[in-house]
Amino acid sequence: MSIRATMDPRQLGTVSLFEGLDDRGLERVLQAASIRKVAAGQAIFEQEDAADTVFVMVAGHAKVAKRGADGQETVIGFINPWEMMGCVAVCGGTGYPGTATAVEDSWLLAWSRATIERLMDEHSRIARNALSTISGRLQSMQTRLHEVSNERVERRIAHTLRRLADASGRDTRQGREIAFPITRQDLAEMTGTTLHTVSRTLSAWHQQGIVESARQRIIVRDASALERIAESE
Amino acid sequence: MSIRATMDPRQLGTVSLFEGLDDRGLERVLQAASIRKVAAGQAIFEQEDAADTVFVMVAGHAKVAKRGADGQETVIGFINPWEMMGCVAVCGGTGYPGTATAVEDSWLLAWSRATIERLMDEHSRIARNALSTISGRLQSMQTRLHEVSNERVERRIAHTLRRLADASGRDTRQGREIAFPITRQDLAEMTGTTLHTVSRTLSAWHQQGIVESARQRIIVRDASALERIAESE
DNA sequence: CGCGCGATTGACGCCCGTCAACTGGGGTGG
DNA sequence: CCACCCCAGTTGACGGGCGTCAATCGCGCG
Q1: Domain of residue B26, residue span
Q2: Mean pLDDT, rounded, for A63-80
Q3: Is the shortest CB-to-strand distance from A192 to strand D under 7 Å?
Q4: Are residues A115 and A217 in the same domain?
């Protein structure tokens, strides 16, 4: 009674890595996959482990973070359903550049390095998709580097929150809610600041009616105000 | 009397993008290339231009910088001989993410998007190399993001200078010299600080005998001291 | 019910960005 | 060939944004 049996291969077509494959191709990709369930808080892969598996999130969310020599962590990003992770490392050939942790109970599809390389050989489209996906991530990293280098803290937080709400939000009665548990600390590690400053900023925004927040929950009530903060001169 | 006529195709094998191709393949790649000479200070491509050309630096150096909405610039990196540029944009499909400027008189090989895609089809190795190269850049971006987010200015400058000396240095009587003209402003835009702070830091290091510097020139005299600054607890 | 982790808030101070003034060397044009 | 000028660099003074330290609160899980 595997998940695989209940899954329509065509859902895989929504994964950017497998975009453009025909039904036969998608079915073969799915058959080559194995399934993994990870409980909230558990690691999916660890920084510097040999990168031998590519994952696609099926349900749940994960956090990818890099810890430096000093023990400080930087959050690279969050992985949403139908997004890929680990591809960079597997394609680049070295170890994973960060640690991935499930922030909710999650189900993932997994392919070994050998398998993904075989699939890329069979379907050159997959290699092209991988290039395109990684290029996009590289550009978003460049954008973040620019922000951290040149912008004040409040604006960085606004940018980051806007992006999170956009990519991982779900609309609720109160506004757009980040669809997974996220702490002030996480947000601080994404924006290069401290949890204290994030807390102060969110408190101020709360008083202005821009956000609503509870423990590990953030709801954006006024997206345009956030935009104004992010883009104001 | 083109440069192409005087160039051994095998030199192209040192370009990571074309690594592992056989002599026939390299020759075909070279035949598909066009040549461009760019004077110091001239743009090679502009941010947001349609990305339709991949370049390989043959001789000279270029700076790639991203300017934000506010006009602030962030230096993405410098391109050394036999390194590639523009691949991300061409593969990713959108415009160039930054502006590339020759910092010295430079010669480049250029391939149109259509050509590079044809070459990738003919030689799947090229696509794999592109993936590997871009993965490496993504990882180095992640490292820089971590540094800018978590480290003090002096240490960031030390890290950056070490990397520059490593990748673009040439050994001289006095020490290892950055092999192209670079201003305090450039270094500031690479490390997320101001030219004033860079100047003060280099002055201090000069007094300790760690670096030697002149207009647009930096020489690292004591690499281990730099390392100590970069890694000290 | 109690413990722990996430969040809040205040006080303090320092790193480094900003403003400002000056220096010097090299390239250009007369 | 010299003089001017501009650009890169240097250095001081100042102050504020935000990191750091510290204390407290309260929700939610065990």
Answers
A1: 3-148
A2: 93
A3: yes
A4: no
Helix (H) or strand (E) holding A92: helix A87-92
Residues in A closer than 8 angstroms to B233, CB to CB, are 70
**pLDDT score at B94:** 81
Q: What is the pLDDT of residues A4-48, one digit of tens each?
A: 566 778 888 999 999 999 999 999 999 999 999 999 999 999 999
Residues of chain B with C-beta less than 8 angstroms from the C-beta of A92: 131-132, 135-136, 138-139
Give the C-alpha separation, B73 to B189, whole Å: 7
Give mean pLDDT in consecutive 10-residue pieces for chain B, a chain of 233 residues. 66 92 93 94 93 94 92 95 90 86 95 93 89 92 96 97 96 95 97 98 97 95 96 77
Q: What is the CATH number of the domain that holds A51?
A: 2.60.120.10
CB burial of residue A220 (10 Å; 0-12, 13-18, 19+): buried
Instruction: Determine the distance between B199 (CA) and D10 (C1') in angstroms.
Output: 7
Percent of chain A with pLDDT over 90: 83
Question: Which strand C bases fall within 7 angstroms of a protein CB?
Answer: 6-11, 15-20, 25-26
pLDDT at residue A203 is higher than 90? yes
Are B117 and B27 part of one and the same domain? yes
B122 and B107, same structural domain? yes
Show which of B100, B130, B148 is a domain's final residue.
B148
CB pairs under 8 A between A and B: 128
**Residues B53 and B98 occupy one common structural domain:** yes
Is A92 in contact with B192 (Cβ distance < 8 A)?
no
Q: What predicted TM-score, i.e. pTM, was given to this entire model?
A: 0.94
Whether A98 contacts A47, CB under 8 Å: yes
pLDDT, tens digit (0-9, with 9 covering 90-100), for A92-116: 778 899 999 999 999 999 999 999 9
Q: Do residue A233 and residue B70 have CB atoms under 8 angstroms apart?
A: yes
Residues 100-129 in B having a C-beta less than 7 A from any atom of strand D are: none
